[in-house]
Amino acid sequence: DVKVTQSSRYLVKRTGEKVFLECVQDMDHENMFWYRQDPGLGLRLIYFSYDVKMKEKGDIPEGYSVSREKKERFSLILESASTNQTSMYLCASSHTNKETQYFGPGTRLLVL
Amino acid sequence: AQKITQTQPGMFVQEKEAVTLDCTYDTSDQSYGLFWYKQPSSGEMIFLIYQGSYDEQNATEGRYSLNFQKARKSANLVISASQLGDSAMYFCAMREGMFSGGYNKLIFGAGTRLAVHP
């Protein structure tokens, strides 16, 4: 079974703090994705990566950066957290030859 | 622009009955893919079913089936014999453009919250 894990289920941070969200997958998937989920908006793509050290902006990259130093690990970084980044963050991964994305359990981030 | 619309914010169904969750999409691509995911209160998104735009038959996976009507641009999820564990958020998603390996970006609808009553 595909397993995608995220470093925290719940996180509370202060405005201006630097925040790291980490995602690890154990199925040797080439592609990894970061989404944020807000009520009434569904999931929106922040960034994705199709290979180590490669990254592409999604639909809402502003205020975020990412890092992929190893194939299994994809980190989302909030350089200076703001209250409008309070949200649920979901990581996903997929194989390069298969369409289905597999998701982690999500991180609920609250920025005060 | 590609778009997914789920018009039902919430639905409820009696246990053991069937329920249909609506999804309409908008795309100018000839090749695309449609997905349904389930999100229980635990938060994890669980893949349920996939339909390719060129698939002639409706996709089925156990109690889940996808009612694909290409001309109407709809991809409704049908859950038969509802169970209490089906209570969750359900998201319809679409893959942009043709998939020929590599990565694919998904566009998600706003979701429908399903409550199954005993």
Structure explained in plain terms:
The complex is a heterodimer of chains A (112) and B (118). By secondary structure, chain A is mostly beta strands. In chain A, strands 2, 4, 5, 6, 9, 10 and 11 form a seven-stranded mixed beta sheet that branches. Chain A has a four-stranded antiparallel beta sheet with strand order 1-3-8-7, with no helix packed on it. Chain A is globular and about 40 Å long. By secondary structure, chain B is mainly β. Helices cover 0% and strands 50% of the residues of chain B. Chain B is built from no helices and twelve strands. In chain B, strands 2, 5, 6, 10, 11 and 12 form a six-stranded mixed beta sheet that branches. Chain B is globular and about 45 Å long. The mean pLDDT of chain B is 92. Classes of the chains: A mainly beta (112), B mainly beta (118). The interface between A and B is medium-sized, with 28 and 26 residues.
In short:
Chain A has 112 residues and is mostly beta strands. Chain A has strands at 4-6, 10-13, 19-25, 31-38, 42-51, 54-57, 64-70, 73-78, 87-94, 102-103, 107-111.
Q: Mean pLDDT score of chain B, rounded?
A: 92
Radius of gyration of chain A: 13 Å
Low-confidence stretches of chain B: none
Beta strands of chain B, count: 12
Total strands of chain A: 11
Distance from N terminus to C terminus of chain B (CA atoms, Å) equals 41 Å
User: What oligomeric state do these chains adopt?
Assistant: heterodimer
Give the overall shape of chain A.
globular
Largest interface: A-B, 28 and 26 residues
In what range is the share of β-strand residues of chain B? over 45%
Number of H- or I-type helical stretches of chain A: 0
Distance between the termini of chain A: 37 Å
| Contiguous helical run count of chain B | 0
Structural classification of chain B? mainly beta
Largest sheet of chain B: 6 strands, mixed
Main beta sheet of chain A: strand number and arrangement? Answer: 7 strands, mixed
Percent helix range of chain A: under 10%
